[in-house]
Specification:
There is one protein chain. By secondary structure, this protein is mainly β. The strands form eleven sheets. It has a 26-stranded antiparallel β-barrel. Strand 13 and strand 14 form a beta hairpin. Helix 1 packs parallel to helix 2. The longest helix has 10 residues, at about 470-480. The N and C termini lie far apart (about 70 Å).
Length: about 850
Amino acid sequence: MRIRLAFAASLLLAHAAYAESITLRNQEQVIIEIAGVTAAWTTNPEIAEVTTAGNRLSVAAHSAGTTHLTVITAGGTQTFLITVAAAFVRSAVRPDADDPVMLYDGRYSSAVARLRNTFDVVINNGERRSEFHILHIRDLDSASGESPDGIASIYYRRITPRYELTLLDELVDVSRITLSNVQLRGLHLKKGALEVHAGYASPTMYDDLFLPVDRRWAAGAGYSIDVRSTRLTPSLYGFFSHPDGTEARRGVVGALSAEHRSGETLFMRGEIGVSRSLAAAGELRYTSARGQIRASVSHKSENFPTVGLADATGTHVEIDAGYRSTDRLSLTSRGTYDRLHLAALPQTIGAAGAGFRYLLTTRLSLLGGVDATTVRSLTTSIRTIGLPLGAAYDAPAFGLAASWRLLDDSTTSRRGDALRLSTRGSRGRLNASAWVERQRNAPTLELIFRDAPGLDLALLRLGIAVRNPEDVARALRDNAALIDLGFITGVNVNLTPRRLQAGMNLGWLGSEQRDQLRLLAVYSRDEGISATRDSMIATLTYSRRIFAATDLYGSFSSWRTNAGALRDSRSSIDVGLRQQFNGLPSFLRRSGTIEGFAFLDPNMGGIRTAETTPLAEIIVTLDGTRTARTDSRGAYAFQHVSRGPHQIAAQLPDSPRAFFTTPSHSTTKVAAHVDFGLVWAAARIDGRLINEAGTGIPNAHFSAVALNGVPISARSDAEGRFVFAVPPGTFRIVLAPESLPAGYTIAGELERSGLAETDRPQSISFEAAARRSIGGRAHGAAEVLIESLRRRAPVDAAGNFVFRSMPAGTFTLTAISSGHVVSRTVTLPSGPAMIDDVDLSGSAAQ
């Protein structure tokens, strides 16, 4: 098993240029910008999935757990640890208000003989929300005398405008000094400026690996005080467990943090902690039009109280900066220093690097720089200097990159090098990427893992593989919990004369995203002095949405290693089902009351406050048949409302002119509380969204933002028109680009300013461009001509041609194919259109 686990460490899933931890809740999304991306994937797309658009990566969380994001660039590979905290998962079916929604997610993995069952329930009641979650693990191959069942996560959460209360599990990330990214099972309260956490560290999920944790108790609270643009938070936390052989330390910590923000440009945070020793942490983020800098530092001595697990003691420094010097030249730099107090892996690791990217053309760029790493332990000292140089070609549907890196290592008299080639491409619903790398005289650092069923496969899927000093730093920071629990117990250092690595990722997305098929494969060959080792892993996954609320998932993984006389080949199958249920059975539903208030909302906040005024005589209707008027308190009520969905709506008064600051009508179920906010309007801003052909574009979202920052929403009608009834003043009218119908892109400004004056309507227009293209086949022709536009399109070796960014209208396409003049007439509508079946081949001549 030890040799097999060494294979798990040796298989390169990612050579980390730098690593960063990202924590999300289910259904949350984060955008990462990385220059020169040629491919990106996650090791477990069921936990989190990534999509790319140029240099922007969008990571979406799907289920609780931990996985790794791998990003291939011309300069190497970057990895990110993705942690998804347990929370309710939304599906394609949207529930009615106040109607409970239940979700079941079941998954079986043959590699660890384990069944995972997840149940989620959520109930929305106006501004209040209740959530219940449980993740149950059933071990089908448990040892005799051990319980086959475990609860990996469980919680009940209540969210209201005044507080957020969670019972049992919560992913707590207060600060680096106190509780940092720890799953705590107990009581959690956030009420205004007060934040309270008390409980013990609960079990941890790594992919399908269930890691029971001995109970490590902690409790404390913090209270935030705002002083102008700075927030001060004094806090007090106690740690009450000190298990033998772990990094946990008992004690009480008093901490004070200061946090300052300046819009989206500057964020600073500093913290100091006092216990039997001192601890400190700081964070800086600065963003400008041309660059950004991120820096973080933390230090906790070995005897400083801590839960252990993810918040290891020691010193950590990280700096990452990027600057666009000109439109063509971009500069980047990074540096990390880690001296972590981990008994299993006492190491000091430093890494630094600087690089540049110069655009020769809009698609072709040169890359270069310098980097250095150093690793020191009680018995080992290794220093590596690298000089990378490369080039990359990036087009919307194709990318190609090549890089060469000279290595000078302190443990060998001969210099090494690394050559890397990577490519990506997409066509229609198919996308693919591949990379290959050859290294000579490169240092190898292998982690040693404890014997545990299924651990090697789980670590492979997590991307825990170390092949250079920077990877060791990443493994220590991102997997401190595994080290503390004893799954990682040591590290070996040696030199590999020659190493060959290759990987590919192939994906297919079906129509309407109902089907998804992915293939990920990685191969590694190490040619050592006395032995050669070959390693390979391949995973094929398929998911299908068979109904609006039903998803099926399946995957097949195969991995093998050949190391001398050792031959190990295995495979595993994962299957899963996700099903959502909406509402209670009809026999459990009873009649009830729908009530609420109508109020004057001068701040346009949409919520009743001390500054709002009740409005009497506002007419409210139920299902268009029952009518009620608000009384002097602004209250209305409908009694004895039957079960099932109901339409509740309010009417504007005849005078003065007004508009709603809340939805004027909604669908709800009993019992329900629905308020209506109004504000008197004395002005109007109207406008229209059109394409370049002058046709209106419907269903686009607009917002009018006043000086107080409270937005008012509107949607364009069938003619592309929209209207805002507003009080007098200056407003910013903003178009939400993601709301444009499919096939449209922004052709002008996203934001316009308008001055609303009494009885003087202000008109504003926006423009979007429709995507239109004409393509087809012209076998035997060199090019296709549209004479009226004076445009030509070359014909490729397969006989295909395409005209993009076409205007609306009727056009004649002409080609000389096989000695014949072939013409076809095509009409493009005013909206988006893609015609790809025009045949201008010689055999088609009339």
